[in-house]
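Final report, closing paragraph on structural work. Over the funding period we assembled a curated collection of sequence-structure pairs, and we close with a single example.
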Amino acid sequence: MFPLDQFLFFLALLNPFLLSLYLIDLMVQMPGRQFARVLTRGVIMGGIVFSLFAFTGEGIFTDLLHVQFASFQIFGGILFLMVGIRFFFQGVSALSGLRGDPEHVAGSIAMPFLIGPATVSASILMGVSLPKWHAVGVVWLTLAVMMVGLVALKFIHDRVRVKSARLVDRYVEITGRVSALVIGTYAVEMLAQGISRWVALM
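Its predicted structure, as stored:
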């Protein structure tokens, strides 16, 4: 049976609408085909990393790094919370500085906008709760849906922005700050889960 709940949760974390806000400057600057090529490379990088975590589960922390998964959840939650707070007060422009040099844009899309504490954590939990290859399949299906959604939003944005530039900019600003609340909520949930796991191990 298809794990619909896992798929929807992972898609919520890789929400194309939310990611379009993170990548809005690239969507504005790049032609459609170039954006699709760069996004494809970033998605492949992210898919490989997510598949690794989904396939190994918590073992990559406990067996290889000799740390508890709960420690990652707590630290990742703190980082995610900092991003959410910065996003809320400074808007979308605050996130463009998280990317590196333009020549490495595909890698900087993968990290930190795809590969982040919440998505890595979700990949690990899928690897624990689902058969390994099912978890990997959910990862790639989610990434494919997310990519199609982002390319479609890029197409719509290019058409609408020419006629309603001020309206689009206002929409991005408002939606971005509202999305920061979602980021903060996921961050607090990660912290809560990590602390609960850590306390249970004591």
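Residues 30-197 form one domain. The chain has a mean pLDDT of 79. We thank the funder for supporting this effort.
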